[in-house]
Design brief:
Length: about 160
């Protein structure tokens, strides 16, 4: 796979690797295709409905932000209470409407759908916030690389981005 990516970089089919600054190039039309976060695309679509998020037939990665509590945390109950707060459907719906990213709380969909605000209610049907079964069938969770794999991964990645 890294050989394919390196070949695409050398042929200029992949122009560059960036951080979150890709959104400016995408919204201006300077970039026609990129790997993007679904929530960014939802937000960009409000200004430019021609921007489209596509999950390739070959598949894509499903990712999520995680709330974690260190196993030796002194105030574990406080942290658990915060996690419980964010998983309350009302709170999760409010957060999903604000950030426009995939929502991990299925019941938040009903909360959004019952909104009197049409734009907010429409978010309940947005597959970039609540992926449908067809989209989910093409999404996979990437495994973590092991500590033993990390040096080779970093070396190969640095070779590609340095081309």
């Amino acid at each position: 796979m890294t050989d394919q990516v390196a070949s695409l970089v050398r042929s200029k089919q992949i122009r560059r690797f960036t951080g979150n600054d890709y959104t400016k190039d995408l919204s201006s039309g300077d970039v026609l295709a990129c790997q993007a976060y679904s929530g960014d695309v939802v937000q960009l679509q409000s200004d430019n409905p021609d921007i489209e998020f596509v999950v390739p037939q070959e598949g894509a990665e499903l990712w999520a932000e995680s709330l974690m509590i260190p196993n030796l945390a002194e105030h574990k109950r406080n942290a658990e209470a915060l996690v419980d707060h964010y998983y309350d459907p009302e709170v999760a719906a409010e957060l999903a409407a604000y950030v426009n990213y995939v929502c991990p709380v299925p019941a938040a969909r009903d909360v959004l759908a019952s909104s009197k605000d049409e734009e907010t209610a429409a978010l309940a049907e947005d597959p970039l916030i609540f992926p449908d079964d067809e989209m989910r069938g093409r999404l996979v969770v990437a495994r973590d690389i092991t500590p033993e794999e990390r040096p080779e991964f970093e070396d190969r990645w640095n070779l590609i981005v340095g081309l």
